[in-house]
Here is the input.
Amino acid sequence: MGVSLNPHTVNQLIKGTEIYGENESLSTICLVLKGRVLIQNDGSRVVVGSGSFIGVTDLYAGRFVSSYIAFDDVVLFPFEVTNKDSIKAIIEGNKDYSGLLVASLSRYLVEVSKTYVEFDLKAKKLYEFLCYAYTEFKTLAAKVGFRVNPMDSLETLEPFPAEVLRNRINMDYYSVLSKVPVDIQKAFFACGEALTTRHVNEIAADFITYITETRERAVYVSQLLEYMISETGDSLFYQAINIAIEVHKLGKKNEELDVLIDQIIEEINGAEKLLSTKTARALYINRDRMEQLYSVLLTGTSVEIDKKDTDNEQLQEVDEMKVMNELQDSMRKIIEYAQLGSDETVELKKYVAMFKNLTDKYDSSDEARAIRRGISKMFYPVYQTVFLRAYNEKNTDKVIDLFLRYGFFDETLLTKQQLVELYYLDTQIDESIPCKVYNIRDWLVEIYEGRREPSKSEFDLDYTESIREMKRSIRMSAEEEKALLNDSLKKLNYEIINMFQCNNRLVNGQVYSFIPILHQDMFVKSLRSTFVTAAKVNYVINQLREIDFSVFYREALYYDAEKNIEKEYIQKEVFPDIILLPTAGINGVMWQEISGKKRDTSGRFLLPCFAEVELEDMLIKVFGRFHWELCRSIQGTAWNNIKYKSLTSEYVDYIQFYKKNRDLSPETKERIKSQIQKGKSNSREIFVIDYVNWIKNESKGAIRLNKYVRELLAMYCPFKKPIRERLMNQPLFAEAMTRFNRENSKKIHEIDLRYKALEKEGIELTQELIETRAYYNEL
Here is the structure.
């Protein structure tokens, strides 16, 4: 917070004192009489000296857009101000102030414009480099036999959506003006107040444009830096150098990969230097870890460089012999427990043996596909048989449990380390909130015991609807229909065939080379690091809810006869069930937005047990699909009818008619066309691309969407209040949120009037009504 200043008198401040704080309200501006002042925000950093006015451009923004810090011991003379008209009173008090104002503002603007140019160039060059480096890395990794862990942020990387600044021509004028001696400027601008106010007004307007554009480019560059090196998850540098180290360990060397790593380090250094010297953005790059990894690459000397080494040391202390003995002959034990016939046993063992002999487990040849298809065909009937027998016998045998939970089948398909990690995975039930998380074994118990109804099929039919469809095609009595509707075994079979079997392949991501049993080539990272727990899932979900606050809320009809509440609409937050499928994978699936026909029932999200990409990236896409499908479900047949305003109807209308939209530039239309192709012309998947950018980028103030989509998402997928308040400082976001703010204020007013009417009638507000009012106030 800025220091308290005494207006219209000399103020002396020591070095390091914050004069004004960013986003603070403005009541004074200052003339620097002695010393220097640092002006900084997350998009620029400039030092101005004596004879400079500070805070003038902020006056035009209505708040301080930067923080002002005493770079030396300084002497300031503050002037009281209320709005931009206060400038007139200041220059009337001393004619020299006119020249000083214009001179200092033009110098300041020129310095900010230089920063703008640097970030504009860096944004373009860094984007081009990352496109090249990521493609090159995948190619080089494949050459040395390694599979790259897909980086969603780089797979979908877009260039900075920038247009040439219209007022760029003004900068040539200001550049010359800033070099004119101050004495000459004093004499010239003292000739008339109109000269000064016009220049100050124009400079202030251009400054706000430049500072906004510079900040947006700085945010973009900092995000690209995170994609190159990030401590929170996978990044290009860590993936590339870890594979290079493994290549060296095998006694090989790939000079092209080593050169690429050097290039990545050079770009990291360049981006970090620009951000740290030109902005006030807080950066954290673990230089010690970088240097240790690079040292390992150069010397081949193994050192403890990350958590993986610690994990390996702990695993060495585990009784490995016990694990290997207990898991020995796992395939035989599972087949015998399933009581397969002799012919089926021979056939399944033959397929598994042939799969083991494949040099490339992802081979796309017809022979390899036939082998994988054969294993997949036999797996699910075996799974159902083993599940039922284990359920009835309450079997807790480790081999059977690992098979049912994770798809473990044959110990020879995994490395010794992977087996030990798998054996000691924590299987304790985690009651973390808000979502209930099930592994597939526990979920099937819920279905079999009737606490949950079977999921819908890929044809969008639930179990009850499928029985009724069957009744239409064959003769069936009412008793037979009732028996089927209550048949636990049929329900279990329906769930395994229509949900489990269908989606296991989808969450894995390797649609054409998938098999449902674990093998070592499925894993890029360790099993322990990729293992998905309820705590991990709910942590990410809670983090995303801090951005997309309303994602699980939906309107529901409410009544309470005892309290004379006949019909009210409330907002109800309903969390989905999360089901972990027994595979390693890269995708999340939004399988159902609701259960059955009621809108206030839980949806169903599917994730792999072992996540080979960041859970956040998976769940953001799942959230986007959930938004879309829930809206479709609520709107019914009107989901794409623009007469009835909704997320889906407005977005579909936008996609259908974007070519005729005069508000969109040719460049924007070309990007939309490319996005439609990327989404395979599926309106939901096109929307998800925008939703990912909304959550990952725009929530941080980085401009990625066009004006229309930003306004649409601000209306139907609003950020949580603190984020909105922060983003309101940027004109583009303030404009986008106008409709939402108007509609939300209207809704709050309606609810207040309605609830006052209830209270007037002597009806006590229930907790549901109180929470609904709180929802709109917090939204």
